[in-house]
# Entry
Amino acid sequence: MSNETSQNDVTKIFMTITWVSALVAVVATIVFFAWWGMKDRIAFGDKKFDQVAWITASSTIDKTCHRGDMAYDLQQHVLQEGITREAATSLLGRPSWEEAGQMEYDLGNCMQDIHGLRLFFNENNQLTHSRIVQH
# Structure
């Protein structure tokens, strides 16, 4: 009987460890995806878009993420789907990089990496979407 009891105890311990590990994995997954979904708002959502501050922004020793704090507001509230490439350029100034269908504005060194706000346009040069990208 003691051998059978010992095996039951080991089985219970193993099952407890398995359930606790599974629960930790589920919680970690939920936390990660919640952070991933909110990271742009957390990292790039401090200030409302200011056109003059955007165009004149430059990196300094104290502020390396020179446009990052306006990027989320710009992306969510100012840049509306369907605006033309020309209207976006008038609003934001000359892009840091561009090619057919895309252009990007440097946000600076944010969260230990270089970031940019990339705008995507359709064949009619109308904005389809934007995304904060990491380089």
Summary: The two ends are 64 Å apart (CA to CA). The chain has two domains: 1-43, 45-134. The chain has four helices and four strands.
